[in-house]
Amino acid sequence: MKKSLKMFAVSAVVGISSMFxxxxxxxxxxxxxxxxxxVQKDRSNVKSDINKVDEQLxxxxxxxxxxxxxxQRIDFAIDDTHAKIREKTAKIEETKAEITRLQExxxxxxxxxxxxxxxxxxxxxxxxxxxxxxxxxxVLMGAKDFSDFIGRASAVATIMQADQEILKxxxxxxxxxEENQAKVEVELASVETMLNELEEMxxxxxxxREEKNQLLATLEKQEEEIHEHKMELQxxxxxxxxQESAIQRAIQLEQERAAAAAAKAAAVAAAASSxxxxxxxxxxxSAPSAPSAPVSSGAFTMPAPGTFTSGFGNRDSFxxxxxxxxxxxxxxxxxxxxxxxxxxxxxxxxxxxxxxNVVFIAHSVNGQTYTTVSAHxxxxxxxxxxxxxxxxQIGIMGSTGDSTGKHLHFELHRGQWTAxxxxxxxxxxxxxxx
Length: 434
Ligand SMILES: [Zn+2]
Description:
- The protein is α+β, with helices and mostly antiparallel strands and 434 residues long.
- The chain is 58% helix and 13% strand.
- It folds into two domains: 20-273; 292-434, Glucose Permease (Domain IIA) (Distorted Sandwich), CATH 2.70.70.10.
- It binds zinc ion (ZN).
């Protein structure tokens, strides 16, 4: 038994006082009723704790729903951003193609201009070779009359102007193409900026998504922990309920004992008043129907036969701060009996993930109440509410629950068992050991 339930403490005292003592029954009954009230109070506290835990669980579920809807919103935003990134990327491709096309066109125009320039230069060279402008002048001077001169001059001017016009047009085309390219390059830069912004936004959204993921994981972990706490509270509630019925059973036993004592007293009085009284009738009446032998010191018997393998307290193999709240008795034999160490009432008999098959018994010895825990049993042979007598077999040794080998883990608590095991005491010196 290494693990212990934690986080809560049962404050109820299960005092099955004078349960088998048979002295001062009325007092015992009223003290038992007081203890029963205390247990009832504790139960209602635990129930209100369970309600609080339920509220916490609901609040956590709400928070989880909020986070999930936030995550959905982020997912939509990521989808949207991805669509925009695809759109801008396509736009960039398109714009780049447009720039390439414009550059090609500019190149062609430039070539055309260069060719034309070449042509004009060629023509100018020809003029120079043949006398250049002089040839023009020759043309002009060769005019027969003024009208012919005007015609010739006009023709020369037209040719020269046409050359200039073509050049101007080419320059204009080139300029327009360059302007277009500049415009498209500005557009490209703007789309690239938008794409960068979108990619940044996408990164932020992904970071937010990751944050929400972690938040959700934290909330789910909290829920798991609180749920575990709730199960512990329910376990505590079950134990308190069992203690309550164990006390109820003890009250009943006290009342039966009181009734039997009263009947005996009446019979003794009747026998005393009758001279012809039969001595055997007193003998019959003195035979008790319930175990009523006064429990004295030496009332305990050993919990099981075997070898004492581990004592109460810190153990070398234990982590610092860990504590062994009981003792261990091991036995390799088959069907090793586990015994009730004293008379008592079974509080609980059940399977626990830590204790395995376990039996809790409330005892009253010389006015002191004790709770014993016998854990890791293979089989339990008693049920909650049963009265047991010292030395009665309550189960068979086993290795169930959090156990590494066949042994009995036995705890002795002065008063009631609590989850913190604050009442655990060393049984050695009180309970005989093998
Ligand atoms: Zn142990």
